[in-house]
Fold this sequence. Notes:
Blueprint: E1 3-11, E2 14-21, E3 24-29, E4 38-41, E5 45-48, E6 52-56, H1 72-84, H2 89-105, E7 110-114, H3 118-127, E8 131-138, H4 148-161, E9 168-174, H5 182-194, E10 198-203, H6 207-217, H7 221-227, E11 235-239, H8 245-254, E12 257-260, H9 262-267, H10 276-281, E13 285-288, H11 301-315, H12 324-331, H13 333-339, E14 353-357, H14 369-375, E15 382-387, E16 390-394
Parallel strand pairs: 1-4, 6-7, 7-8, 8-9, 9-10, 10-11, 11-12, 12-13
Antiparallel strand pairs: 1-2, 2-3, 5-14, 14-15, 15-16
Amino acid sequence: MKKLKIKNVILNGKRKDILIADGKILKISKKIKEKSDCEIEGKNLAALPVFFNMHTHLAMTLFRGIGDDLPLKRWLTTKIWPKELLLTPEKIRKGTEIGLKELKKSGCPFFCDMYWWPQETAKLVIKHKMGGILGVPFIGKGPLIFSKRFALKNFFELKKVVKNYPSIKIAIAPHAIYTVSKNNLVWAKDFARKNNLYYHIHLAETKEEIKFSKEKYGLTPVEFLDKLRILDEETILAHCVHLEEKDIKILARRKSLLVYCPTSNMKLGVCGVFPFRRLKDSSALIALGTDGVASNNNLDMLEEMKIGALLQKHHFCRPEEIKAREIFEAATKIPANFLKIENEIKKGNLANLILVDLTLEEFSGGKDIISHLVYSANYNCVKYLIFNGEIIYQRN
């Protein structure tokens, strides 16, 4: 059993040694004398939980910079969907490889994806020793139609690939209520329940979607999914920008995971802001996501925390609207708890942690590391990324 020792690292404000073996944290102590196979000198490092990017379309790294400065509908119909019609499994592999490397650089070993040919993404996730929820998408309206039949084919191929790799979970991922029929939305949930899958969907992203839902169903998008009995503790809802008070009460009660994607929402001009404080105060579960690179244009979770926090403060005219630790927990603790993945650095837990470089100028001044991570730092501060006890990234 190979052992990894991290020496003299700052953990919760105190200097500690951390001993890791067989994927888990064996010991945390002021001084560990036990020998190890590999040592990291942590004198200038701080240990923190890893990040979870809970909504993205990873292989869209291929479309970085395509369709900038366009509204969502025009962006989709004139730039993205025509390009996606030309995608192949080989292109998915190319885009995914770029995305996984980018995620690791910002201390993020786990992501929630919704993109075509997820079985190809899975092969590379395993190669990189990372983890994720890989969504099997389908879409029934518009120029880009991926049928239910095609989704089923993808699901069974994906299931074979991830059979012996527990760090990958599967979701069924209908695109949205305006591109998937009512019957297929329900079919997807029934299929998810029968096969113990998550359910991942875009929801309440634009005013046009709200109008569509009210005109067609007489309900808000949240009310509509709730009426269909889709909202529950295995449901992941991306965006959730345009919410009414009744929606917030429903979401808090159902304990679905709501994914805040501030950079993408601002870049696409969705004309609204995710109501973080009202959701938080109602005990709804909030995570953070970058969305795809085509609408962000990167996968830097540290940058996403800063933008997410500043947007709340600016929009609601209250510097106290959101605290650094709250956005940090939306990127770490809350999604980990939702997924039942250990992401707290303590004895007996899986060894999932980042080591950040405290010698950088971004960490000068005050001693609040969380504040510096949220408001000052970017991906360059991540020196090591350790996932399931293995070093999967090291910055030179």
